[in-house]
């Protein structure tokens, strides 16, 4: 049964996984998308239509995970299906694995990788704007594409032991270390913005307090989660008016 | 007239693909604000402004991924930037026109995000695809749902992009061309520094944990030291 799924099928599933968010709803989240993505492999595993319909219902539960890490989950699930694991085992793996990967993915991809690739892109701007664009696209995409494509093969090879294997790649200690490094680089970035913008100015004493107030307000406003998203437009509007008056 | 129709068509198609990319196609770096604004800067011959606009929106988007559709904000900002560039309207980092552009694009992002939430809440109240799981069609029914949603996303995204770029272009044009004022020369510099630095601060804040500002301080001291030596 296991031999029925070829590498080509896994690649097909991996390509389809890019569309997993398309049918996202608050109740079922990614479950409809998950069935669509797995369907080429499931059709091969269960050619009989009635059996396939029963198997599809294994996924009639809220599924939510990080879209970049879902390939690992998909590979592991296909392995479990090929081993004829019970619906209960599959549902339990989906629930626990999905939420675990979602938490790991959010902190790694959104906070660390996005910021690190932006900083790298800014540093490459010395060689021109196009270099900056290429750097950002290459760094960010190469990491998540690598995980997306290889993830399904790793998942399919390891089955329900995948998560512990994957945990060795991106564990919370590594993410914490990366975050610390990112914070140091963030400080360097702040200084660079400050120094480059003021390098041609003669009278710069007033910029230091402006920057200090900005940094402080950034940290303080961020304590209230998304509060600053709504405060910023109001502040910009105020600046527009101030520029006209002063 | 032909030029306007061409601009609308290009904005519709590109905007639809980019918004679809965020929603359905897997969130690659192509929709990162820095990429879009840098490309817009290159096209309109104002690379410095493109970099400034891109860095500002990019850092803000990392600081808080929710509550504002940053992809839509960047599409509106970069689209307006290119369109106004075609009509020789110049910006510059921190100027009134560029502040107006950032302001209107963030507002559009917030409106778009909240509209999307409302739409999802509506779908949640009456799930349209409950029958899907009992369908005799099997997995084909799921495929057709995905294709319908992608098509809907494309059309909605196209309309959204045209509206967003039109609004951002209109407002930035009014501020850039119709406001006759004597600017304090220091204000654009202050704004040009403040917005990206605010972005870095909220990004570091979002890394969670009270120790991160301390590590950022180490970075500041280190780079100041290197700068002083150089």
How would you characterize this protein structure?
The complex is a heterodimer of chains A (246) and B (230). With 246 residues, chain A is mainly α. Chain A has one domain. Chain A contains ten helices and no strands. The mean pLDDT of chain A is 82. With 230 residues, chain B is mainly alpha-helical. Helices cover 77% and strands 0% of the residues of chain B. Chain B is built from eight helices and no strands. Chain B has helices at 2-23, 33-44, 47-63, 70-86, 96-125, 139-178, 186-206, 212-229. The longest helix of chain B has 40 residues, at 139-178. Classes of the chains: A mainly alpha (246), B mainly alpha (230). At the A-B interface, helix 2, helix 3, helix 5, helix 6 and helix 8 of A face helix 2, helix 3, helix 5, helix 6 and helix 7 of B.
Core attributes:
heterodimer; A: 246 residues; mainly alpha; 10 helices; elongated; B: 230 residues; 77% helix
Radius of gyration of chain B: 21 Å
Give the class of chain B from helix and strand content and strand pairing. Answer: mainly alpha
- Count up the domains of chain A: 1
Could you give the order of the helices and strands of chain B?
Answer: HHHHHHHH
Q: Please, how many helices of chain B?
A: 8
- Rg from Cα of chain A: 24 Å
The low-pLDDT segments of chain A are none
> Could you give the order of the helices and strands of chain A?
HHHHHHHHHH
Form type of chain A: elongated
Helical content band of chain A:
over 70%
- Percent strand of chain A equals under 5%
Give the tally of β-strands of chain A.
0
Distance from first to last alpha carbon of chain A? 76 Å
Question: Into which percent range does the helicity of residues of chain B fall?
Answer: over 70%
For the residues shown, what is the average pLDDT of chain A?
A: 82
Percentage of residues in strands of chain B: under 5%
Q: How would the blueprint of this fold be written?
A:
The complex is a heterodimer of chains A (246) and B (230).
Chain A: H1 7-16, H2 31-45, H3 49-56, H4 70-82, H5 87-124, H6 129-158, H7 162-169, H8 172-198, H9 207-222, H10 227-245
Chain B: H1 2-23, H2 33-44, H3 47-63, H4 70-86, H5 96-125, H6 139-178, H7 186-206, H8 212-229
Helix pairs in contact in B: 1-4, 1-6, 2-3, 2-4, 3-4, 3-7, 4-5, 4-6, 5-6
């Amino acid at each position: 049964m296991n031999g029925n799924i070829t590498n080509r099928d896994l690649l097909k599933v991996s390509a389809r996984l890019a569309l997993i968010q398309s049918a996202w709803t608050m109740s079922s989240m990614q479950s409809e998308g998950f069935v669509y993505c797995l369907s080429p492999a499931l059709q091969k595993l269960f050619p009989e239509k009635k059996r396939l319909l029963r198997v599809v219902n294994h996924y009639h539960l809220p599924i939510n995970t990080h879209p970049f890490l879902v390939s690992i989950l998909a590979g592991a699930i296909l392995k479990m299906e090929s081993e004829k694991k019970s619906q209960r085992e599959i549902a339990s793996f989906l629930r626990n694995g999905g939420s675990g990967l979602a938490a790991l993915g959010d902190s790694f991809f959104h906070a660390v990788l996005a910021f690190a690739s932006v900083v790298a892109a800014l540093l490459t701007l010395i060689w021109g704007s196009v270099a900056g664009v290429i750097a950002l696209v290459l760094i960010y995409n190469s990491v998540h594409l690598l995980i997306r494509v290889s993830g399904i093969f790793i998942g399919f090879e390891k089955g329900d032991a995948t998560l512990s294997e994957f945990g060795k790649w991106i564990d919370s200690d590594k993410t914490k270390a990366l975050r610390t490094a990112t914070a140091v680089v963030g400080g360097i970035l702040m200084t660079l913005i400050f120094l480059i913008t003021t390098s041609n100015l003669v009278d710069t004493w007033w910029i230091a307090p402006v920057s200090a107030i900005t940094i402080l307000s950034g940290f303080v406003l961020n304590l209230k989660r998304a509060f600053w998203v709504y405060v910023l437009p109001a502040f910009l509007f105020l600046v527009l008016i101030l520029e006209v008056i002063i | 007239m032909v030029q306007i129709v061409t601009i609308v068509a290009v904005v519709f198609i590109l905007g639809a693909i980019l918004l679809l990319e965020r929603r359905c196609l897997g969130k690659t770096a192509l929709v990162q604000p820095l990429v879009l604004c840098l490309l817009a800067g290159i096209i309109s011959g104002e690379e410095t402004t493109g970099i400034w606009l891109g860095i500002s929106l990019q850092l803000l988007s990392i600081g808080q991924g929710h509550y504002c559709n940053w992809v839509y904000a960047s599409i509106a900002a970069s689209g307006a930037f290119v369109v106004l560039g075609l009509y020789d309207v110049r910006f510059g980092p921190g100027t009134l026109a560029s502040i107006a552009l950032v302001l209107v694009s963030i507002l559009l992002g917030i409106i778009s995000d909240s509209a999307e939430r409302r739409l999802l809440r509506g779908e949640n109240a009456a799930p349209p695809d409950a029958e899907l799981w009992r369908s005799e069609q099997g997995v084909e029914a799921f495929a057709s749902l995905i294709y319908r949603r992608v098509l809907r996303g494309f059309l909605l995204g196209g309309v959204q992009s045209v509206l967003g770029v039109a609004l951002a272009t209109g407002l930035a044009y009014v501020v850039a061309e119709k406001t006759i004022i004597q600017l304090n020369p220091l204000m654009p510099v202050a704004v040009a520094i403040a917005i990206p630095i605010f972005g870095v601060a909220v990004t570091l804040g979002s890394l969670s944990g009270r120790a991160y500002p301390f590590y950022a301080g180490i970075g500041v001291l280190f780079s100041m030291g290197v700068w002083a030596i150089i």
